[in-house]
Design a protein that fits this description.
Elements (H helix, E strand, L loop, with lengths): L3 E4 L9 H14 L6 H5 L6 H11 L6 H19 L11 H10 L3 E5 L5 H7 L8 E3 L12 H10 L6 E5 L2 H9 L3 E5 L10 E3 L8 H8 L2
Parallel strand pairs: 1-2, 1-4, 2-3, 4-5, 5-6
The chain binds 6-O-phosphono-beta-D-glucopyranose and magnesium ion.
């Protein structure tokens, strides 16, 4: 029986994936590393530091820790510039309704995000109170595809992993959910969501959470 829903943030609740891409592209350009959407796909769901490592590997570049920190700070500043005017209107279609209705139906709700900016974003979009527990990149630093962020969510909600569903837009997140013993809904394009139990284009497709679970996840 499913009793809890764990949501990724970037690309599921808000369309911030495009801003992460823009900021990383700027870093890559400065480092003269070719970096397009295809390469960016590998960064989705991955922590900030691991994302930089992937980009540096693409360019076969090795940097000392302080230089890496410099790029991490620049990237985050560029990213923050993009999200500074984010507001409740920017919530992706269907997300708020699903969060509200699922709670009314008695499901426990957690956020399971790699982002250290998660709380800032949730405040901007006015969804901070939609979650019973928030697990972000400050609380769990080990990156998806490691399942820690979702397992921590299940633990804090006091629900066994097999009774949780994860909503994810990234391949690394799908792998993390499966490794954690959870069912997983892929949100987005079929090509990047291998192994998901069901794939939807947007949360809007989940009209009734109980019917959705009994149709696709039981
Ligand atoms: C994930 C994004 O949610 O958070 C990644 O999919 C991002 O692209 C990661 O790198 C870390 O985010 P932040 O905000 O801490 O840099
Ligand atoms: Mg995501």
């Amino acid at each position: 029986m499913i009793r809890a829903l764990i949501f990724d943030l970037d690309g599921v609740i808000v369309d911030t994936a495009k801003y992460h891409f823009k900021a990383w592209k700027k870093v890559a350009k400065k480092l003269k590393i070719p970096f397009e959407e295809k390469e960016n796909e590998k960064l989705k769901g991955i922590s900030r530091i691991n994302s930089l490592e992937i980009i540096l590997n693409l360019g076969s570049i090795q940097l000392p820790a302080e230089e890496k920190n410099h790029w991490l700070e620049l990237k985050n500043n560029w990213y923050l510039e993009h999200i500074k005017n984010m507001k409740p209107d920017d919530v992706l279609l269907g997300a708020e309704q699903l969060l509200t209705k699922s709670r009314e139906e008695g499901y426990k709700i957690a956020l399971g995000s790699a982002s250290k900016n998660a709380i800032l974003i949730l405040k901007k979009i006015n969804l901070i109170n939609a979650f019973d527990k928030i697990i972000d990149g400050n609380l769990v630093t080990i990156s998806k595809p490691n399942p820690k962020v979702f397992l921590e969510g299940a633990k804090l909600l006091e629900i066994p992993p097999e009774e949780c569903i994860v909503f994810e837009d990234a391949q690394a997140g799908i792998i993390a959910a499966k490794r954690g013993g959870m069912k997983c809904v892929g949100v987005g394009s079929r090509d990047n969501l291998k192994g998901a139990n069901v794939i939807i284009k947007s949360l809007e497709e989940v009209v009734d959470i109980n019917t959705f679970i009994s149709d696709h996840l039981s």
